[in-house]
Amino acid sequence: MGGGGSVQTVRYSTGWRAPEQDRKPSPKISKIRSQNYEEIKKQCLDQGALWEDPSFPAVNASVYHSYNLPYQFEWKRPSEICDDPQMFVGGATRFDVVQGELGNCWFLAAVGSLCATKSKELLHRVIPLDNSFAKGQYAGVFHFKIWQYGKWMDVVVDDRLPTLNGRLQYLHSPSNNEFWAALLEKAYAKLCASYEALSGGSSSEAMEDFTGGIVEHYELTKNVPDDLFNIMKKCYERQSLLCTSIDVSRMALESELPTGLVVGHAYSVTAVKSLKVRGHDVQLVRIRNPWGNKVEWNGAWSDKSSEWNMLGENERQELGLSFEDDGEFWMSYPDFTRNFHKLEICLLTPGTLCEERGRRWELTSEDGSWKQRVNAGGCRNYLNTFWTNPQYRIRVADRDDDSDEFGTVIVAIIQKERRKKKKEGFDLLTIGYSIYKVPEKDTGPLDMNFFKYNASAAKCPTFTNLREVSGRHKLQPGYYVIIPCTFQPHEEGDFLLRVFSEKKVTSGEVDEPTGLVGVKSEVGVFIDNKENDIRVLFKKISGADKEVDAYELQEMLNSHFKKELTFGGFSLETTRSMVAMMDSDRSGKLGYGEFKKLWVDLRQWQKVFKEFDRDGNGSFDSHELREALNSAGFTVANATFAALVMRYSDPRGRITFDEFILCAVKIKTMFAIFLQMKGKKPVAEFTLDQFIQTTMYA
């Protein structure tokens, strides 16, 4: 039954996005997750073989996916590059990080920041100490722990590295026999499907993937908090990762400025210190260029600048001062804010910014997705579709300990696996979110009128095309709905919503159960008045047996409804389903009594369709299907709604009259069968034959 369970979880889901284990994983992720480091290592040691990773082969396509290189990389193991390969030489330090030919300074800056923390526990959670080149332990296989969208993954790689002329081409250590950095980069490249996929990015991505933390962003060109230096110092002391960068200007990317700094480049922040110098407070920031060379800041407090003469020998030693061409330098905090444009701080928990070390923050998270034709509604600028976006209800139950009025929440939306999809031509979406105060009573999904007449209580600082958008908000206790969205409508993607709070916040997807609701019909009066006309129509088509089959029903209905609506007529599939809905004895035909009941339904559903086909062109948008079904007397859960849209809308997201009627007919049929089969039980049970007869005949 294991195989049957697997099929069930793939085909049927709950919510906008089923739990991770209930979804069919991408082949690449599946292979990565099925590789067990201990098992591979033991097998290779037993066989005396060195492992070769089949899911990330040593070929050019694992390096560059977008074009063919005019040369071939030589993939070499460390023992083919040097005589005495080691994982670490003198431990892992920020000085081991030297950028190669790949434009991934954002990643290297995060690696340098990870090494600069005082916590070896953080470092060796990512780089386990059981990786080794020692005899009896080395099998050509290594592993690294990387956080991905709420879960820690053990990424296993072989140690074949891309070289040209015997030299490593990408991230490497100044020591030619130290390989932890190059292997970590390979593990991250494997996770993203190629080395090329690492070109360009934000350090916030890698910092979160090394910690599972959350990044807060600071623009240093405007609205700089008065206490930013204290925030930086406190975060550094509490093992947070810090990176900074200079935006691209009119100068070419990675051009060197007269100050020695580089445009469009990411740096690690490796220390934040406050000193007393001749009776004055001096605030200093230590920064490292991942190029690891002499391209450094050349202003005040730079290497060998005169300011250092004001410090005594003990103070110099306390700072670990050294003047090498290693990419690392000091600068004053005012110079830092004048010359750099962005600061990213990865908090291990949001409480890093709180005064109390013991304060514990709560986390709740939800997986979701935007799907074209279903719930990819775009931002509030697109009111007609904005309301269709996924909605998540949270409850801010209590005020902060230090506030009489508000509770603090940090909301973060991460778009999933976009870097991996670069190979397929996808890029990061521009994403954001809004937060709305809602009544205490759960009213189900909020409709367009709610957003038309209610302003947001809070929203993201800005829409961004980074992997994650986040914001810190102070909200009064109560119920809220978070709307994650892309800026433009009709853009597809998966995401993870995380909500951090000082006091526990409950969350859940806003949904409604699939069911029947009472609808007052005005068609009954019409039927009574037109009873004779309907009987004549039926008699004309039915013939001697006084029954109609699907073919006769199609002819009869098309002759009538095509006069009233713009559509191509009912398909044979639709009229067959109509017969099945009313055909309790499965004769394949309808008598007059059954036809009359069908006619009542059709006229009611026609009325509903006209309400939503506002321009009279014979169709309406798929995102309106839920409201149309509500008007017809049905409620549908999010996952069921998504399935119906995929089944009954065309590629443009339009639903014709024929498809709407077919959808309504099948839903009503399925409801009737389910209620009949379940009786007084909460679930309906079917034998295989009953299930096949039900689904195939409906």
Helix content: 25-40%
Structural class: alpha+beta
Any low-confidence stretches, pLDDT <50, length ≥5?
A: 1-10, 18-30, 352-358
The CATH homologous superfamily of the largest domain is called EF-hand
- Number of self-contained structural domains: 4
Strand content: 15-25%
The CATH class of the largest domain, by name, is Mainly Alpha
Number of helical elements: 22
Strand order across the largest sheet: 6-11-7-8-9-10
What is the approximate shape?
elongated
| Nearest-integer average pLDDT | 88
- Name the CATH architecture of the largest domain: Orthogonal Bundle
- Determine the N-to-C terminus distance: 27 Å
Describe the main β-sheet briefly.
Answer: 6 strands, antiparallel
Number of E strands: 24
Could you please describe the fold and organization of this structure?
- The protein is α+β, with helices and mostly antiparallel strands.
- The chain has four domains: 30-202, no CATH class; 214-350, Cathepsin B, Chain A; 361-510, Sandwich (Jelly Rolls), CATH 2.60.120; 516-697, EF-hand (Recoverin, domain 1, Orthogonal Bundle), CATH 1.10.238.10.
- Helix content is 32%, strand content 21%.
- It is built from 22 helices and 24 strands.
- A six-stranded antiparallel sheet has the order 6-11-7-8-9-10. A five-stranded antiparallel sheet has the order 16-15-18-13-20, with no helix packed on it.
- It is elongated, with a radius of gyration of 32 Å.
- It starts with a helix and ends with a helix.
